[in-house]
Each structure stands twice: as structure tokens, then as C-alpha cells.
Amino acid sequence: MLQVYTFLHTSEKNDIATAMNCLTEKASEINMREAQFFPKSKYAEALGGSLVKHMGEVFNSKYSIEDGKDSYRVILEECGCIGCIQKDSDEFGLDDTTCRTIFCGACLGGYRLSAEKLGVKFKGSLSPLGCIMTFSSRKDR
Predict the structure, then answer these.
(1) Which CATH class is domain 2-137?
(2) pLDDT truncated to tens, each residue of the chain (141 aa)?
(3) Which of 13, 22, 50, 69 shows the smallest number of beta carbons within 10 Å?
(4) Domain boundaries, the chain
(5) Global pTM value
(6) C-alpha count within 13 angstroms, C-beta hemisphere, residue 76
(7) How far apart are CA 63 and CA 132, in angstroms?
């Protein structure tokens, strides 16, 4: 939160798009590096597993997994990451929309970009307390 607050106030909110692109790209690089330890046929599962590890376990989120034949869906029923961010956001003068734009946007964007680069179908959406991300093996490879 302190880093985001500092960035927003020193940049005077003029360059949020550039910062978000950089953050999304770096998140994607990390996700891809982890997924590439698996065979290509397991990339969808590897990306979903990465989400579970990072958001579910590290942030103590409440989540469920739907592991299908060609897809892997992670449902963050209550995201511990955005929950802890929103808890302290008032102290930094950030509203919920700004928090979700920055944190959820970077997370969803990073996984979307990783999936795209790895040839995996991606579908993601936000819910009031978390998000849903589905990774599917492409049939056209």
C-alpha cells in the first residue's frame, strides 16, 4: 500500500497506465516462468496452480477449484489479497475502485497475458469478494 500511495502521489496520477503495463508484464513473466517447468499440455493447470499458491495460500483466501478435462478454474470466494488492501486503503486515501483497478487489474492482467503467451485460453472476472479465473487448453494448437 505504501508503494502504491507513494507512486500515485509522486506521479500525480499522470502515469498510472504505464505503471500498470509494467506491473502486468512483470507478473506475467513470473507466472510464465513457473508454468514452463511443466509440459505444455499442463500449462492451464500450472497457471491455475500458481493462482492458488499466490492468492489462495499466501493471502489465506477462501477458494475452490474446478479441475475439468481441458480446463482449470479457480474461484476466489474471498480474496485475502484485495481484502487486506481494502482494509487499510482509507489510511492511504484510496477508494475500493482504485484498489481493485490497481491490484485486481494487475493480477488478472498478468494471468491473462501469461495465458496468451503460453497458448492457453483465459477467462477472468471479478466478483464482489474475489475473482474467477479459468485456464483452458487450446484445441487449435
Answers:
(1) alpha beta
(2) 666 666 666 666 666 777 777 888 888 999 999 999 999 999 999 999 999 998 888 888 999 999 988 899 999 999 998 988 888 888 888 888 888 888 888 899 999 999 999 999 999 999 988 999 999 986 554
(3) 69
(4) 2-137
(5) 0.86
(6) 33
(7) 9
